[in-house]
TrEMBL record:
PROSITE patterns: HTH_MARR_2. GO terms for biological process: response to stress. The lineage of its organism: Bacteria, Pseudomonadati, Pseudomonadota, Alphaproteobacteria, Hyphomicrobiales. Residues 14-141 form the HTH marR-type domain. Its main location: cytoplasm. This is HTH marR-type domain-containing protein. PANTHER family: ORGANIC HYDROPEROXIDE RESISTANCE TRANSCRIPTIONAL REGULATOR (PTHR33164:SF5), TRANSCRIPTIONAL REGULATOR, MARR FAMILY (PTHR33164). It is found in: Cytoplasm.
Length: 160
């Protein structure tokens, strides 16, 4: 009989890959929160700015796709960023349902002010740059596989 709590127990918390990723994400959030609070930003708002610093004028749907967020989550974030004067939302004249997001000068200026953030937080991990790149590639691949499987499972359920 298997003794509960053994190191090879697949239901032991320490053996859960999802818990390791979840708890690491939580730790990242805490690290970023401390640094972002100086700019009155939350981590999800910072992620929106990262997307817009790469490409402005994206629709809410496009930003949501990049961040894996639905519009119900993203819209309040964008409204808060707009109220803070960091972005502006522009409705498409041809299709009022489409809203494109643009940075304001204030939003653009934050990029330079927060340039060191990723390196600072990355340095807190104890991993060198090569290990961080390898981990990033591994996690991106894992995320892609999980999304692909979830989407194919949803398609099968919808067809069945």
């Amino acid at each position: 009989m298997r003794k509960p709590g053994r190191a090879d127990d697949p239901q032991r918390l320490d053996n859960q890959l999802c818990f390791a990723v979840y708890s690491a994400a939580h730790a990242f959030g805490r690290a970023y929160r401390a640094m972002l609070s100086h700019h009155d930003l939350t981590y999800p708002q910072y992620l929106v700015l990262l997307v817009l610093w790469e490409e402005e004028g994206l629709t809410v749907k496009d930003i949501g796709t990049k961040l894996f967020l639905d519009s119900g989550t993203l819209t309040p974030l964008l409204k808060r960023l707009e109220a803070a004067g960091q972005v502006r939302r522009v409705r498409d004249r041809a299709d009022e349902r489409q809203v494109s997001i643009f940075l304001t000068e204030k939003g653009r200026s934050l990029k330079g002010k927060m340039e060191c953030l990723p390196l600072d937080v990355g340095g807190m991990t104890g991993l060198d740059m090569e290990a961080r790149r390898t981990l990033l590639e591994t996690l991106a691949g894992m995320r892609g596989e999980l999304h692909e499987r979830a989407n194919s499972d949803a398609t099968v359920r919808a067809a069945g």
